[in-house]
Amino acid sequence: MITEAVMQTMMVSLIVLWSVFVTLQRFFPALIVKQQQRLVSLLAAKGWHSLASYLQPSAKGQGGCGSGCSSCASACTTPETATVEQVVRWSHKS
Q1: If we measure between CA atoms, which residue out of 30, 35, 31, 71 comes closest to residue 56?
Q2: Which DSSP category does 62 fall into?
Q3: Residue 34 belongs to what H/E stretch?
Q4: 3-state helix, strand, coil in the chain (%, to 5)
Q5: Contact at 8 Å (CB) between 30 and 69?
Q6: 6 to 10, 11, 15, 18, 20: CA distances (angstroms)
Q7: CA-based Rg of the chain, rounded to a whole angstrom?
Q8: What is the DSSP letter of 58?
Q9: Which residue, 6, 18, 26, 55, is most buried by CB atoms nearer than 10 A?
Q10: Which of 1, 65, 57 is nearest to 29 (CA)?
Q11: Per-residue pLDDT band at 45 (split at 50, 70, 90)
């Protein structure tokens, strides 16, 4: 019974940690990339090159202008779409 409780606690902990990681990656990508690079350099210094290359952050996570990353202070130009006026007709029910 104790073994089942320990396994359950470990699984729930892993799921919560993974959820926190994914949420941080989604909303704070610059923070995650910086910490991931720090971990990679630490692993490479310890001699774990294959794990370090696997954990190396990819460039695809870096967004361009208009991606919503807020990493630059420049104003991004987004193409403006033409607004179409729609007529609203009120119907009177009696």
Answers
A1: 35
A2: S
A3: helix 29-46
A4: 55, 0, 45
A5: yes
A6: 6, 9, 14, 18, 21
A7: 24
A8: P
A9: 55
A10: 57
A11: very high
Would you state the structure tokens that stand for residue 35, as one six-digit string? 């910490």
The sign of the dihedral angle between the CA atoms of 31, 63, 51, 21 is: positive
Q: Are 52 and 40 in contact (CB under 8 A)?
A: yes
Positive or negative torsion for Cα 45, 48, 50, 51:
negative
Question: What is the distance between the alpha carbons of residues 42 and 39, in angstroms, rounded to a whole number?
Answer: 5
Contact 57, 33 (CB under 8 A): yes
**Cα gap 7→15, rounded to integer Å:** 12
Beta strands in 1-94 (DSSP E): none
| H or E element at residue 27 | helix 2-27
Q: What is the mean pLDDT of residues 10-34?
A: 92
CA gap 35, 24 in Å, rounded: 11
